[in-house]
Amino acid sequence: MRMIKVSIIGLVILLLASCDVAGTGAPPAFAQSSITLPNRRISAPERSVWIEDYRRFGGPTVVELEVIRLINIERTNLNLSRVTRDDTLMMAARFFAQQAHDLRGLYTGTHNFGPYADDPSASHGASANVAASFGGRLRWNGGNWYSSGNLSAEFLVNGWMNSPGHRAYIVSPEHRYIGVGHFPGGISYMYLSDQRSR
């Protein structure tokens, strides 16, 4: 794993490397990254490098897609409309999950695996700041839900549905779009929104 470096050469090298990977069409089992996120907010060029890395490793994973499927089952059982995957929110959620993993141990307090999700002073800002930096639109911010470790989609959704606050966001009729991010050894994170990302 390497630190992001702001350089045109580094950007070109990573973009060329991404072209060498042949996609199989099937989602990857687990999230991967060749980048270690720095302990600060990243620049727009650095974010572009991270996005290319996300796509090079296959984008959404089996776990992330299964979380969405299970949430839609819960909503359908309550006669609510299904939420649609928003690729921008998917990337923002994965980024948030990864930075909690990469910056593990640098923070103290209740959430010792990374900065608290809604703390604007955290390295990458609050959850809404992260979503906005990717172009996500969160009039209803359904973020800051996370769990440490490598957990199954079923475990995550069951846990959220058994938590009154989390359940209220999941079954809110206003929500129409979703983004889910899971990073092995880090956290799982979810955004829900009533607006499609820009």
Number of helices: 7
Q: What proportion of the residues form beta strands (DSSP E)?
A: 5-15%
Q: Quick one: how many beta strands? A: 5
Helices and strands, in order, run as EHEHHEHHHHEE
Structure, explained:
- It is a single chain.
- The protein has helices spanning 8-19, 44-56, 62-77, 87-102, 127-134, 153-161, 164-170, and strands at residues 2-3, 35-36, 84-85, 177-182, 188-193.
- It starts with a strand and ends in a 5-residue tail after the last strand.
- Strand 1, helix 1 and strand 2 form a beta-alpha-beta unit.
- With 198 residues, it is mainly α.
- Helix 1 runs parallel beside helix 2, helix 3 (62-77) packs parallel to helix 6 and helix 4 (87-102) packs across helix 5 (127-134).
- The protein is built from seven helices and five strands, in the order βαβααβααααββ.
- A three-stranded mixed β-sheet has the order 3-4-5. A two-stranded parallel ribbon has the order 1-2.
